[in-house]
Amino acid sequence: MGKGKVYLVGAGPGDPGLLTLKAKKVLEEADVIIYDYLANQRFLNFCKEKAEKIYVGKKGGAHTLPQEEINKLLIKKAKEGKIVARLKGGDPFLFGRGGEEAEVLIKENIPFEVIPGITSAIAVPAYAGIPVTHRNYTSTLAIITGHEAEGKEESKIDFSALSKIGTLIFLMGVKNLPHIVKKLIKEGKGSNTPVAVIQWGTLPKQKTAVGTLENITEKVKKEGITAPAIIIIGDVVKLRENFNWFETKPLFGKKVIVTRTREQASKLIEKLEDLGAYCYEIPTIKIEPIINEKVFYTLENLYKYNWIIFTSENGVRIFFKILWERGNDLRILGNAKIAVIGKATKNILKNFGIRPDLAPEKEFTQEGLVSAFSKINIKNNFILIPRAKEAREFLPEKLRENGAKVDVLPIYETKICEESKGKLKEVLKEGIDLITFTSSSTVKNFFKLCEGIKKDYFKDIIFASIGPITSATLKEFGFNPHIESEEYTIDGLVDAIKNYFSKK
Prior knowledge:
This protein is of the alpha/beta class. 33% of the residues lie in helices and 21% in strands.
C-alpha cells in the first residue's frame, strides 16, 4: 500500500467558530483523526462517519500516550496509506510539538502539510477584551511557555530581557504563576503592572481574574482559576474595562441543555452560543425511518393526491430520501400542491426546489394550518400527510370534517435516545441553568431519561418551550415552562430566552 499523508492541524483555542476553513476540509476528508484534550470535541462532528478517532491528549499532566508513541502512531497510520489529521489545540507550531512531529515525518519520508491554527496567545486576550498590542501602550510582545518550574537549575527563559517587553503572554503557566511574578519583579518589572489570567478562553465558561503583579496570585486563587489558563502582563490589560465584549453577552456563562435530535441541534446551539451560552448537546430523541410496502406503494402513487402536507423538517428529509433512493425525482409529485405547518419546514423544502402553496400566517401549529385550509374548498380533495408514527390527530380529523379524503402515512418514528442517559445525569450534576424543549417528544423522552431523579432536583432550572403544544406536555409532567416562544420556531425560542434573561 502506498504512503498516506499527515496534516498537522491547529484547532484554535476552543471556540468552534475559530476553526479555519482549511482545517475543516481536512477533517472532513481524513481517514484517521489523532487529537488532543484541548481540541474542542465538537470538531469531531466534521469527520467522516467511518473515520478512526484516536485520543492522545493529556489532562492534568497525565498523558494518554507519550510523544514518542504519538510519533510512531502517525508513521504507522500514514504508512497504511491513510490520510491522517493530527488535531491540536491552538497552533501546531506554537508550543504544540508540531515541529518535533514534522521532523519525524521528514525522517520517514512521509508527506505532510501544516494547517496553522488561531493561537490562544492572541485569541484568548481578545475574548477577554485585551488587545495584545496597542500603539498607545506597547509595540513589543513576547509569548513564553509557562511550564518552567521554580528551582530549575538552567532556565531557558531570560526574565531580565522579558521585564523590558511591553506585553508578556505566558501559556500553560497558571501553576507557576507565583514563580513568574517573583522573577519578573526581581528583574525590575513594576509590581503595579496590570495582569490578567484567563481560564477556558473563547468558551462560554471563560473566567478572568484581573490584578497586578503584586496581587494577581491571590486574586487567581480567590476566583478558583486553574488550568487551562493563560497569563497576560502589561498595560494593555487596562483596556479590558472598556473592551470587554464577550463576557457581557446576554447569556454569557449560562449552562444550557439542548434536547433536540443530534441532526437538528446544531442550529439552536449555534444561536445560543452566539449569545454567550455554554451548551450541552443531549439528544433525547432519535429519528428512525419507517420502510415498508405501504410507504413504497403510496410514494409510487403520488399522482392521485391534490395536496401533500409536511408537518416537520424530519418528515421532509425522510420523504425525499426515500424518493431519491427509489430512483424518483420531483416529477413524481405531479400536480400536488404542498402545505406546511412552520417556517423551518418551509425553509427546508426550498432546499429541494419547492415553494409551499399554503402555510399558516402566524400560528405554526396544526390549528394554524387548519385555519389556513378553512379558506379553501377541499371537498373531495385527496390529501397525503407523511409524518411521524405518533402524532396528534387534530389535523387529519379536521380536514376530513371539511370533506377531504386524508391518508396519514407514517414514514418515521421518534425513539428515546438511550445513549444520552449517562451523559444527561452527569451534566445535571454539574449544575444547569436552562433546558430547551422543541417538541412534545423531546419532553417525554427527557423525563424518561431522568427516571429516578427527584422532581425537586429541577426546581432551580429554567424550562424553555417552543410553543403551547410543547408547554402542555411539560405541564403533564408537572412543570410550568418559564419561557414560551411567541413564534413557534427556533428563532422565536432563542428570542424568548434572550428576552427572559435580559429582564433578570
